[in-house]
Amino acid sequence: MVKSRVLKLIYFSILFWVNARLFAQVDNSYLNQQISVNETDSGKFGFSATVFNYMRNTEYFNNIELGRTLFGYQVSPSFSYQPTGNIKIQAGVFVRNDFGGETTVIPTFTVKTKYRNLEMLLGTLEGATSHQIIEPMFDIARNIENRLENGFQLKYQKPKTFLDVWINWEKFIERGSPYKEQFTAGLNYTQLLNNPTHHFKVYTILQGMLSHAGGQIDADMVNKLTMRANYTVGLKTSYEISKKQKVVFESYLLGYKDTGDTLVFANQNDGKAIYGNLTYQYSNLQFMLSYFESQYFISPRGTAIYQCQSIDDPTIKLNSRSLIIPRIIYNKTLFNQIQMSARFEPVIDIQTQIFDYSYSFYLKYYFEKTFH
């Protein structure tokens, strides 16, 4: 039962904490994107470009998610102007090409303000993996398939605090539209509890996601209102053994709540899960072991392999899941400019005894230049 697993997870969390041998959620920092605002750039124009190449292959043969390959590139050039030291206006285009598929071109526009440690964005957001939401609640593949997010974002960052609150407006409707409006709202609050200079660090983590499809003016008479929420509270501890070695342990309690007009599971509007990660890092190489167990857990924006409902056949539903995911991750900066990430991630389903795996390779290049 999940309750007994929770007690075990808390016990092992305390045990790891006391022995100070600890590590973390998958490090996606190499994939993140951020719009810089510098006081010294007041009155300056700028140009920036991000080139992102991806190859993600999931060799999955289970009932929840069948494997597929995402292979292509994204290019997002943009021009910017800072009328003052704390306001930046940026406009550009986002181009995505899947090899053997179609090319997508979408305009982007952002107004970002920064006052001390507080940042506000309107328009195209610093989204996808930049939110730093854990995998069961946010799919890394959204960095490829749903990279652009548009709406409102508020961020607060200090050495001991990270806060990201946002709303991503995904589908706009007119009166009589044949589909419902859709948006996702999210929260990530991470707080370091001790001194940032210590080799041993302790963090508390609170995250939430709300997925909505509804509205009053649409003409969609088939699909009903959906309002699904996910949330988690977590503890993260890290210990820096040396400049090249680091260990981190994380444990999370997750929840799922459905307050819409339709339920995934009959007479069951909530679910729960536990999620733990233990990783050892040596230089650029990471060895990570993850454990996930759930009951009636659904996360509309989460990684599909963690769900209790199949994304390929929604009629397939499992009351519970138990997964072990060992991973090998190699992150490295090449030529001081190109960021590379290579990953091998097996998935062991304890209940069905199915062994699946995925491997992925990412390259990201970012260029930025300002002009008087």
Structure description:
The protein is mainly beta. It has one domain (2-371): Beta Barrel (Porin), CATH 2.40.160.40. The chain is built from 2 helices and 16 strands. The chain has helices at 2-19, 142-145, and strands spanning 45-59, 69-84, 87-98, 103-115, 118-124, 150-158, 161-171, 181-192, 200-214, 226-240, 245-258, 270-282, 285-295, 320-334, 338-349, 354-371. It has a 16-stranded antiparallel β-barrel with strand order 1-2-3-4-5-6-7-8-9-10-11-12-13-14-15-16. Strand 2 and strand 3 form a beta hairpin. The longest helix has 18 residues, at 2-19.
Note the topology.
Blueprint: H1 2-19, E1 45-59, E2 69-84, E3 87-98, E4 103-115, E5 118-124, H2 142-145, E6 150-158, E7 161-171, E8 181-192, E9 200-214, E10 226-240, E11 245-258, E12 270-282, E13 285-295, E14 320-334, E15 338-349, E16 354-371
Antiparallel strand pairs: 1-2, 1-16, 2-3, 3-4, 4-5, 5-6, 6-7, 7-8, 8-9, 9-10, 10-11, 11-12, 12-13, 13-14, 14-15, 15-16
